[in-house]
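hi!! sorry for the late reply, been swamped w classes. u asked for the two structures so here they r. pasted raw, havent cleaned anything up. first the sequence of the first protein and right below it the tokens
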Amino acid sequence: MSMPTPAAGGARATSPLRLQFPQSLAVYDEYAAAQRAVDFLSDRKFPVEQCMIVGTDLKRIERITGRLTTGKVALSGVLSGLWFGLFIGVIFTLFTAENTVVIVASTMLFGALFGVIWALVGYAATRGQRDFSSVTEVVATRYEVLVEHKVAAQARELLSQLPGGRPDPFA
């Protein structure tokens, strides 16, 4: 949403994530609705390279997936260490002619040992302050479709034909 910045040698360069003089076209509660509006414009040969979807009012959502115990942490460490050891073992076998089964088994064993130690040390370092597992996501609560000022009227006219397109009358 700013002017192009000068590049080396006096040439003007613009960021692909900026419009020169953006105007609000419509505001949606869901990304899929904003995407549908831009797709509708694209289907009608509108120059969509002059559009932008901006997510605003960000919020962090954390979904708790379970309780952590020393046993669960140890098991997770063993399993991730086994996978890492398997990967390293397979890489080693590409460069040696020795017994590949012994190489893969030993790297998996060392990987499991390293994985369980690393996981338990990390778990102990939290001192019980986070005894749960979770997944986190950052999402926007509103999605605004912006369009370059010189094509805003054309975009509003086209978007008014989209059922439920709700062009912003105050933009």
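now the second protein. again sequence first, tokens right under
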Amino acid sequence: MKTIGIVVGSIRKGSFSQSVADYIASKPVEGFEFKFIDIANLPLYNQDYDENSPEAYVAFRNEVKAVDAVLFVTPEHNRSFSAALKNALDVASRPYGQNVWSGKPAAVVSQSPGAISGFGAYHHLKQVLGFLNLFVLPQPEVYLGNIMNSLDENGKLSNENVQSFLDSFVGSFVQWINKF
């Protein structure tokens, strides 16, 4: 059994990213399990903590180490990904030489209430993940625009076309993971 860690880039209660991630995690994939890795309570990264890291850093790094692959589901904030997600990337890539992201297969899903679909967040995140030595699924790229139109009144992903696309995407991601 391989574990895919899901990192949701929004820490907002009831976030669109969480709704998308919940849908993905709800679909069983033979030989795989999903595990959410929470970023909401990480203190801001500070290099002064490298020698004596807060327990939250240590626990987070251990969670990242324990997964076989990582799925990032992110909103777009000002044409980039969220500050909370950037902080999580920094925490787990430090201290220097101890990057626990390194060598893991990864994939990105971006979403936005706007028509641009999180395009900026997707590509900015992909650039950072490449630097951190994560092997990011090149295709399909996932940009979900006007996301609120794909959710029901309870915030659940209900658009069948989006669901079908995400199911296909997960299949491609699993094939990508199995290459490593």
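hope this helps!! also noticed smth abt the second:
Helices lie at 16-26, 55-66, 83-92, 119-131, 160-177.
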